[in-house]
Structure formats: C-alpha cells, structure tokens
Specification:
By secondary structure, the chain is an alpha/beta fold. It has a single domain, classed as Glutaredoxin (3-Layer(aba) Sandwich). It contains five helices and five strands, in the order H-E-H-E-H-E-H-E-E-H. It is globular and about 30 Å long.
Length: about 120
C-alpha cells in the first residue's frame, strides 16, 4: 500500500499541485502549513508563478509545506472568501489561519523566504 501511495504522489507531482474546491478546502488544509495559488487558466502571470512554485517545491527547506491550487473561475466562493482581487494571488495559511496574502508573481526564492517567515 505504501508503494502505491508513493507512486501516486509522484504521478500527481508530474501534473502539478492538487486543486482545492469549496467542498474539500477545509479538510485538505486542516492542521497544515499551506501555500495556496489562486490562479486562472487564461492568466499569463499565473503560468509564470506555477513554474516558480514547482521550482520552490523542489528547493524548499521545510518538508511540512504543502502547495495547493484554486482556479478562481471555478471556485469563485473561495476567491471571494480570501479577498482575491488580483491574479495571481498566493495565500499562506498555517493551522487554518491566514498568515499572508501576496499578489503578483513571486520567485522561488521569495516563496522560500515567505515560507520561512510564516511557517517557522
């Protein structure tokens, strides 16, 4: 079973990060340190951030940080709940509490620095 889980996780990582919806959001982030990428498929800066998030995920110094994605066109209620007014937006949440909200493209190094700050 453990081998299957590792295999599935490696396949998921090839295709990007797990997407959240209103129905699974609270369950997925509960008790975790998470970075949530609020994006839209039509947004060019969002695509740049997606690459930077993958780079950050490979270099991050903290193994306990999980990255999720939320498509604002499909999950408008979540975007509204977190006051997403610009794209891309990145929300840092620890144990269910918002620690920071950043707008615009962040580099992998900026993501690392913010993670160190908010997820000590």
């Amino acid at each position: 079973m453990k081998i299957i889980m590792v295999f599935l996780i490696s396949i998921i990582s090839l295709f990007g990060f797990e997407s959240l919806s209103s129905s699974n959001f609270d369950e997925k982030i509960k008790g975790k340190s998470v970075i949530i990428d609020f994006y839209a498929t039509w947004c060019p800066p969002c695509k740049i951030l997606a690459v930077n998030l993958k780079d950050y995920n490979e270099m991050k110094s903290q193994d306990n940080v999980t990255i999720f994605k939320v498509d604002v066109d499909e999950q408008m209620a979540l975007a509204k709940k977190y006051n997403i007014t610009k794209l891309p937006s990145v929300v840092f949440i620890k144990d269910g509490k918002v620690k920071d909200l950043q707008f615009g493209v962040l580099s992998a190094d900026e993501l690392e620095a913010l993670s160190q700050k908010h997820f000590k």
